[in-house]
Amino acid sequence: HQPQDEVRNTLPPVLDEIVRKSGSSRAGQKACLRLMEMRFLGLPETVETARQKINMCDEFRRLYPSSEWTVQILTTEAQLLSDQLGEHQRALELYQAAVTTSGRKALLRHVASCHAKLGDYSKAAAAQAEYLAERPEDDYGILQLIQYQLQAGMITEGMARAEELKKRTISQYIKDRLADLLKEYVRVFPDGTRVPETGVSLAVRGA
User: Fold this and answer.
1) Which 3-state string (H, E, C) describes 103-127?
2) 119-126 long-range CB contacts below 8 Å, 24 or more apart?
3) Three-class secondary structure of residue 87 per DSSP
4) How far is CA 105 from the centre of its chain?
5) 8-17, 59-68, 109-118: which range is least confident on average?
6) Mean pLDDT over the full length of the chain
7) Is the pLDDT at 113 greater than 50, yes or no?
8) How much is the pTM?
């Protein structure tokens, strides 16, 4: 780790000086991004380093509010907040800002994940469905949507998508994960009669 330690100790002051002298220029912004990378080179990811990175992301957005790298900074900060600090509401707001700023629907899967971590599975399902509207071939994304729908109590919708996915996917991994997911649900047969496929009602096991 000695070379990394040496770089971490010597390069940031140089980059700091470039940032200080470059104002809001593109070169200054690139130096700031590089500084964020070099300052933590070789260091383990901890709560403290995550907070320091978040502070640097905040400072970048304050210094360069119209930067071409704004979306990158927003998503980096949101990921740190959610994954390292468990601050899912703040992460959600930043991911939503990134979607608004960029128009990139691919980021909606992160919005969905934050909603789910906050326990709002209906909103998670809605965001995931919007993401899939542009990526209908993403089988893993569909699997995630099914999970959100079932967690939200959208049983009919979730089971219908599960059947579609089971028929079309060629991935054994997806098939196995789908089977694991559906093990949590059982068919309900009122009065001992079989419910037609078009009108299946389900109950969560253990509910």
Assistant:
1) CCHHHHHHHHHHHHHCCCHHHHHHH
2) 121/148, 121/149, 121/151, 121/152, 121/153, 122/152, 122/154, 124/148, 124/151, 124/152, 125/149, 125/152, 125/154
3) coil
4) 12
5) 8-17
6) 86
7) yes
8) 0.81
